[in-house]
Amino acid sequence: MFIQIDGNSLTFDQIYKVIYQGYSVKISDHAVEHIQKSRTLVEESITNNNVIYGVNTGFGKFSDTVISKTDLADLQINLIRSHACGLGEPFSLEVSRVMLLLRANALAKGYSGIRLETLQLLIDCLNQNIVPVIPSQGSLGASGDLAPLSHLALLLVGEGEAVYNDQRMQGEEALKLAGLKPIQLQAKEGLALINGTQAMTAVGVVSYLEAQKLADLADGIAALTLEGLQGILDAFMPESHAVRPYPEQQQVAARILSYLEGSQLTTSQGQIRVQDAYSLRCIPQVHGAIYQVLNYVKEKLLIEINSATDNPLIFADSGKVISGGNFHGQPIAFAMDFLGIAMAELGNISERRIERIVNPQLSGLPAFLSADPGLESGLMITQYAAASLVSENKVLAHPSSVDSIPSSANQEDHVSMGTTAARHAYQIIQNTRRVLSIEAICAAQAADIQGVDKLASETRKIYSRIRKTVPTIIKDRIFSRDIEALAADFKTFVQDTNYELAL
After folding, report:
1. 117-157 residue pLDDT tens
2. Which residues pair with 24 in a beta bridge?
3. Is residue 493 within 8 Å of residue 499, measured between CB atoms?
4. How far apart are CA 182 and CA 170, in angstroms?
5. CA-CA distance, 468 to 503, in Å (whole number)?
6. Distances (CA, A) of 389 to 268, 343, 394
7. 96-99: long-range contacts (C-beta < 8 A, 24 or more apart)?
């Protein structure tokens, strides 16, 4: 099983198949032609002594320094080594693999001037699951993700570190064990490998895939919480959403109603109370707005994963070599900040529902859902944990894209901080997954108290899924284990193409 890449048509479904289902990657014949034509133009330009940034000049502030023909190969390897300044914990293996795929796809577009054999080695590493160890910090998100992509490029020249067969080792050893040989970079190739937005975009893709599933999950958990609190269904009726016609809001309201069809625990206006609190009544409005953000993020990521983000770009048909700024990560920086804000808000409203379900003054249920209130604290401190996570999310959601620090002696005087934005969005998603896990545990316990036999058929399936991991609470225990176990179970939904919330 394989997918073909050409730089123009990579989809989320194809990325999913490569990263989670083991599909191989190959370059389309059409892309091969473009790659070879752009490489020919690079070599002709060198022969004709044309001065081209990054081919026979230095980089950044050194762009006016012309490099002799005899030093062009050294220029490229020096670039990779000197720019490999990544710091901190490495990206996850799935993020690094997405980075390999996205960089290969960008190079396959045919505007980078790289040799076919260099690109093929990159794809061979991806197909044989040789994953470069790439530190997650150190990118400014303009001039490309220089530091992270330099660590990726080190693998191709037999340097740096990689993970192969679940073992971390030197890059050269990983290539040797897989029957591959390192490449010697030629003119333009080092720059072609590292001048792009693939680190921020890879984190963005992995984050988006999880965020989309978490949003779906949140709707189902919220429906179960509504039953635990005997929530009012009137606020979800289609009439009120038709007069504020956001499609996502309407979809969430309809989904909640479908989950709760046949429930004996929900109520109507005036039956117990006239109105529910906002965290219940406004689920369609808040969750719907979050889906709007997800749609925006998806649109920007789809454009970015099929873009040429190099500098300079090689246009073989016209013979032009253009130095521009497609490496600037501003579109993805904004999208990642927006994603982080949206997912923080998904956690915020979930935490408020947790408070309502454990607080006896708001729920009508035993205090903190305790089996023996007073002697046992029940789920009291789970709300503390959720509050801590959403508070942390509020700090992480501060937009990274509003910051810029000049670099390279002010030649590169405005940067996006897009990779920082993506990293923060990813962390927010991990925190929010745990908050939703806490809500799910509380909602399931409330269902036990209210009567599981009274649940709607769909929310009963959600309840059963939770109970496979977290048994009914009959006395105090170490709840962090339950939270982490359920959060890990929720994480697997991202890797399950047959995922349905009701399973």
Report:
1. 999 999 999 999 999 999 999 888 888 899 999 999 999 99
2. 2
3. yes
4. 12
5. 11
6. 33, 12, 9
7. 96/131, 96/132, 96/133, 96/134, 96/152, 96/202, 97/18, 97/19, 97/126, 97/129, 97/131, 98/15, 98/19, 98/202, 98/205, 98/206, 99/134, 99/148, 99/149, 99/152, 99/198, 99/199, 99/202
Distances from the Cα of 436 to the Cαs of 121, 216, 416, 432, in angstroms? 42, 11, 31, 6
User: Max Cα separation, the chain?
Assistant: 86
Is 60 within 8 Å of 412 (Cβ atoms)? yes
Catalytic member of 20, 23, 53, 291: 53
Domain ranges of the chain: 2-196, 204-495
Check if CATH label 3.90.79.10 holds for domain 204-495. Answer: no
CB 136 within 8 A of CB 90: yes
The answer to whether residue 418 scores a pLDDT higher than 70 is yes
Question: pLDDT class for 500, splitting at 50, 70, 90?
Answer: very low
Residue-wise pLDDT tens digits, 13-25: 999 999 999 999 9
Is-above-0.85 flag for pTM? Answer: yes
Q: How far apart are CA 220 and CA 213, in angstroms?
A: 11
Outline where 160-246 has alpha helix (H). Answer: 171-177, 189-194, 198-228, 238-242
Residue (of 72, 45, 55) closest to 319 by Cα position: 45
Residue 498, pLDDT > 70, answer no
Write the single-letter amino acid at 33. Answer: E
Is 499 among the catalytic positions? no
Domain range 2-196, CATH class: mainly alpha
Gap between the Cα atoms of 250 and 239, Å rounded: 10
The helix/strand/coil state of 237 is: coil
Q: How far apart are CA 480 and CA 171, in angstroms?
A: 38
CB 74 within 8 A of CB 67: no
The CB density around residue 453, as the number of other CB atoms within 10 Å, is 8
> For 24, phi and psi rounded to 5 degrees?
-90, 170
d(CA 469, CA 474): 15
Exposure of 46 by Cβ count < 10 A (0-12 exposed, 13-18 middle, 19+ buried)? middle
Nearest one of 110, 109, 113, 120 to 44, comparing CA atoms: 113
What is the CA 390 to chain-centroid distance, rounded? 19
Q: What are 154-175's pLDDT values in tens digits?
A: 999 999 999 999 999 999 999 9
Cα angle 98, 412, 189 (rounded to 5 degrees) comes to 50
Which one, of 168, 140, 141, 171, lies nearest residue 154 by Cα?
171
